[in-house]
Amino acid sequence: MPFLNRHHGYELIEEANCVQEVYSKNRNEVEFTIIGYRRSLKTQFYNIFCFMLLGIPHLIFESFPKLKALRFSKCALEIAEIILVIDNHGQPTLIEMETQSICLLLDLPTNVRYFNYRHTKFIWQPIQRRFVTVDELLSSSTLDALLENTYGLNESEYKIRYDIYGPNKIEVEIKSYWTLLVEEVLNLFYAFQAFSVILWLVDEYMLYAICIILLTIFSSITSLIQTRKQSEALHDLVESSKCHNVSVLRKAPKSKPDIIKIEPVDLVPGDLIVLPPANFILPCDVVLLTGQCIVNESVLTGESVPVTKTALHSGSELYDPETHKRHTLFAGTHMIQTRFYGGENVFARVVRTGFSTTKGSLVKSILFPTPVGLKFYKDSLKFVFFLFTVAVTGMAYCLYLYISRNADLKDIIVRTLDIVTIVVPPALPAAMTVGILYSQERLKKIGIFCISPPRINVCGRVKIACFDKTGTLTDDGLDMSYVIPSKDQQFLDPVTDVSTLDSNSEFVQAMATCHSLTTVDDVLCGDPLDMSVFDFTQWEMEEPGANENARYDMLAPTVVKPPKHSIEKITEPENFEVPFEIGILRQFPFSSTLQCMSVIAKSLQKHHMVAYTKGAPEKIRGMCKPETLPHDYDVKLAEFTARGYRVIAVAYKNLSGKFSWKDAQKVKRDVIEQDLNFLGLLIMQNPLKVETAPVISTLRSANIRTVMITGDNILTAISVAYDCGMLRSHDDVFVLTASNDEVDTRFMLERTGLNRSTDNVVINFDSSHHHIAVDGRTWSKLKYCYPEAVPDLLVKTTIFARFQPDQKAEVVTHLQELDYIVSMVGDGANDCGALKAAHVGVSLSPAEASVAAPFTSKIQNISCIVNLLLEGRCALVTSFAIFKYMALYSLIQFFTILILYRQHSLLGDYQFLFIDLIITTSLAVTIGRQGPPEKLCPQRPPSSLVAAKNVIPLLLQITACALFQLGAMYMLFQQSWFQPIPDDVTEPQIVSWENLVLFTVSCYQYIILASVYSKGMPYRERLRTNYLFVLSAVSLTVFVTWLLIYPCKKMAELMELIATTPDEEEKFMFRVHLLIFPTLHLLIAVSIEAFISDQQWLKRCIQCLKRKSKPKNKYKRLLQQRNTFPWLNTIST
């Protein structure tokens, strides 16, 4: 079995001896890069350096992974000891190379070098001089090859594969509390905390240091418990879908193969397993070789409707789990029951195990989520760097101040380093997550579950909302309106009552047999469309046992038969002993690519088999003989689809009398689905969900663009878009179509209903009344012929119809490339790719544990997207508010400390405790408790912290804080009774008027700014609804006012403040007059936010000064710079 140069999904290309890039086959972009390193003298120097500096360099390297590789020397991959893997998001991972002894195979040496990256094993292939995944070692199998080996693996083959692939297990590691503690503590945050505590202990802030130690321990324990619970929850989810024993066919040397029982963990690709009759959890991905299975895949897709899986057909094409998913049973899914042959087992072949399975891939997407590239997080790092710069400036001032006073070296060091602990708040990272945690809790209460909390903030920036149609905008179920039979190339009158049709007609029998329905616990279930059509026929369905197969060539088929009153009409008396029933011998399941399904059936009253096909009218037309199609086929189709009906075409073909059951099981699908006879149309209604139109209206009012990405007919999709308000009554819709000739690269735009070509149409990009609709075939051809036209198409297209699942994901990805923040709402079945690709993917699923998308909604309509956007905006604004508040809190304390240093004073131990633990903590935590408003506003919240529109008001607030502190000190200096602290004191004096003024004024500032940043509308509820915050702010204000005006003696002593005495009226009045400063500060702080920060004039002024001529978003530039389709003028007819 030779190596493959390509592996399904990936192509590995060696760029240099020490670097290898892993390319995505589908998107032709680098998935990750592999770089080789080995230990050298640098490693030894690093170890010595760490030892000398008490491990501090190690903490820095652990906190900044990109620096880790500096310890090693780059080398060729073939001699590498350490592997650096950098993914396409720039995230680096250092991995130790390992060696394994395996059987000599495929030109591999006995000792194989390999590494594991995110649960994928990469083995060094010395001949090709590159790393290959284990799936590449064994060549991909054709369908015929999978069907040929019916004896299973022998022991030697099994041993080889087990050595290569390893055990079949998806393990979510639950780390011990000790391991979690070490990982938690060994980072820069805790190093900074330890540094701060040591500094405070040296400075004799004993109580404060002890409180911080206790809080840090409490925080660490809470974090450890939370992390452990999350790991246990995911571990339990994985473990819940495990089975105990599996029956495997094992080839014996000289005898028939044996069926043995083994543990699921011992399965390897290539194993032949025997599926039990019912209630079985699949331990790995398998392809069905015989029989049929009914499977519930809700844990993977969110789709709760059972799916019928059929046996793999023969063919020379390569097997692909996605292409052949109707024949593939996926790990973790629940097999409800199997369909038996007479006395035979149902066999399936293992194709993927462990983390290579679909379930494994989904678990990996949770363990290693795609980083959310929100600008806010990058900007917050820039702002922290700014705070460090401020800290360095303050440290320089302290150095100058204390050196000029000839202070002790200890005091100089302690006071200087203390500035860093003040300016950069250690609690900042934790505080920024408060808004997300509250939003996640509120979403959970209304039935929306999130497996990636950082994406909640991304919801606040959504610019375009994409929707699937069936089951999302419309109901799952379909109502049969009527059927239109065809005869002699003419459509007959519509029929609403099936009893008026002859049950012996091919049209009725096609409706009764061409489906994938099954019975589970005596209840008919399956696709809603199939259910609706079958119910319309009023026929009955039976699934006989294995002993009732004699009349059907050893097959136990699904049997359908008309109601009893119809049997009497179609059965002759002399033939009454032969019951009128039809056996379904073979199913060709619905294919998203082919957009149709077929069955092979046989009636006991006929001597030949019949093939029935139903599907998209556009596809069925190409499969039918032209002489059987009505002349007005396209006109009728356009008439019904334009009125919003779901139209299904039906056709049939009589098979030869020599066509046997074995032929039916082996025949290829394309042989059946050609030269068909057209039978008629099924006209169905797919009513809108009640909530759809109001939600679309809400999104439009909020300036969020809405589009539909569906697999349905393009005219039906347009009609639904008009009904739900995605298209308004006065909007023009143009259908873009490509020529049916593969060589012809011309395209045409037609206005729906008017049938006018582009010669009479000018599409105005600036107009919101012009929309384009495109189907999947045209999309693919346009991408191939004119890829530069895709961005132009995307900014004006509202309807994407007849799109296959991979095309849906393509649309989402291309929209993201135009700088749209994209949301996608779907039912989780055919939309999995698009849901995972979107910034905000929402699966409408009753299963809370579904991992089909980052968000899962038990609200089975699109109103969930409004809730998500409201919570996202609320969480994002809250994150901004808390960040600004924490930054200003640090700077306020920074100003206070610098001024007190200048005046030979300090804040006391209890004062620090009161500010940091009582005021700041209580306000920062309660700021995030404000929920979202009831309505979406047209403006999106800001996404950048460092944008001038945000920075200017922030700088004004900082300036106001500094000026009011200086103003209060100036007022103190003007008092005739005031005596400043002498310059010749050797120790800072805490109990002083300078301390009292700055402590109380700064306390008011913390409360004022927290209140200012707790503003409500338009992204949060009004401040008065946040009862805990209001209570905290009012209580703290009253308490600080009491401390300022007339504290009792014991409280004054505890807080190290100057007490008030009754006989000092002048000093008492000074305390009262000091309230002027917080009052004025409140007015100015509110004014800055109300008249500067929240106003558009500031943004316009900044744009004018910057002379911004073009929007920063690509889609906005496209809308501005082009009023027509330049590419269309050259390729349209």
UniProtKB/TrEMBL annotation:
Tell me what reaction this enzyme catalyses: ATP + H2O = ADP + phosphate + H(+)
Supply the InterPro entries for this chain: ATPase_P-typ_cation-transptr_N (IPR004014), ATPase_P-typ_cyto_dom_N (IPR023299), ATPase_P-typ_P_site (IPR018303), ATPase_P-typ_TM_dom_sf (IPR023298), ATPase_P-typ_transduc_dom_A_sf (IPR008250), ATPase_P-type_domA (IPR059000), HAD-like_sf (IPR036412), HAD_sf (IPR023214)
- Known EC number: 7.2.2.-
| Entry's Gene Ontology cellular component terms | membrane
Give the residue spans that cross the bilayer: 45-64, 177-199, 205-225, 383-403, 419-438, 886-904, 910-929, 950-973, 993-1013, 1025-1045, 1072-1092
This protein's UniProt keywords = ATP-binding, Magnesium, Membrane, Metal-binding, Nucleotide-binding, Phosphoprotein, Translocase, Transmembrane, Transmembrane helix
The broad enzyme category this protein falls into is translocase
The protein's matches in PANTHER family, at most eight in alphabetical order, are given as:
CATION-TRANSPORTING ATPASE (PTHR45630:SF8), CATION-TRANSPORTING ATPASE-RELATED (PTHR45630)
List the protein's name.
Answer: Cation-transporting ATPase
Natural source organism: Acanthoscelides obtectus
